[in-house]
Amino acid sequence: MFKKIAIGLAALGAISFGIYLRFIRPWQLRWGATDEEVARTMPGDDVVKHPTFDATRAVTIQARPEEIWPWLVQMGVTRAGWYSYDWLDNLGHHSAERILPQWQHVAVGDLIPFSPDGKAGMWVKAFEPQQWMIWWDKKGDSTWYWGLSPLDESHTRLITRVRLSYRWSKPSIVFSLLVEFTDIVMMRKCLLSIKQRVERGSVHTGVTGQSLPQSGDSVMPNKINTTL
Fold it and tell me: Does residue 51 sit within a domain?
């Protein structure tokens, strides 16, 4: 009896995995992206030479790149959050609904925190202000690209690309598999939430999607593009 149950579960698992590879994975690796965007070479593609996981996702936002950029540079745990499922990826704290001046400075080598203590995450490898930004793991096993591609004077494509090379014999494979099966859930929510925030603005908005500094705040200028 136990053997039959085990065989049945194994068969169900194999069928489910086959469905994932055939239908779900191709969809989730390019959610919202056009054929041209998937095929386009992005800054940082040369870092991870042969990625196991190569996902390009995108969304159209009714705003200019300079209105979207501030929302990107302030992301991270202990910062503005991820604009996703906060109970899951931001320690239960609600992601920012406005631009936070204290997180508007970005420089190559900055840590984008993923952990509660703010010490683990990815690092800024390179960026071009209001155009694109690359995070990486400093090892060449993973990169996370954020790009802004204008469609016209009032619409911009926000494109993100995650490239990850699995290390099957390393403990990090647990994290890699977590990305494989759950990343789309977080990324879809994140992109749609950024779109919502930018297009809606906030009670402190001066122009669509940007929040004006409050009394006592000081805005730090973005650093000119460099590479690590």
Answer: yes
Confidence of residue 139 (pLDDT cuts 50, 70, 90): very high
Is residue 121 assigned to a domain?
A: yes
Which residues face 156 on adjacent strands?
61, 150
Choice between 78 and 133, residue whose per-residue pLDDT is larger: 133
Q: Reply yes or no on whether the pLDDT at 216 is more than 50.
A: no
Which residues neighbour 220 within 8 Å (Cβ) at sequence distance 6 or greater?
A: 101, 102, 104, 105
Handedness of CA 163, 120, 213, 193 (dihedral sign): positive
Is residue 112 located within the same domain as residue 196? yes
Statement: the pTM of the whole predicted model exceeds 0.70: yes
Pairwise CA distance, residues 167 & 78, whole Å: 28
The residues facing 68 across adjacent strands are none
Residue 171 in tokens: 């403990």
Number of folded domains in the chain?
2
Q: With contact defined as beta carbons under 8 Å apart, do 146 and 169 qualify? A: no
Q: How many helices (H) and strands (E) does the chain have?
A: 6, 8
Alpha helices in the chain (DSSP H): 2-19, 25-28, 35-39, 65-73, 86-89, 173-200
Q: pLDDT of 25-51, one tens digit each?
A: 888 899 999 999 999 999 999 999 899
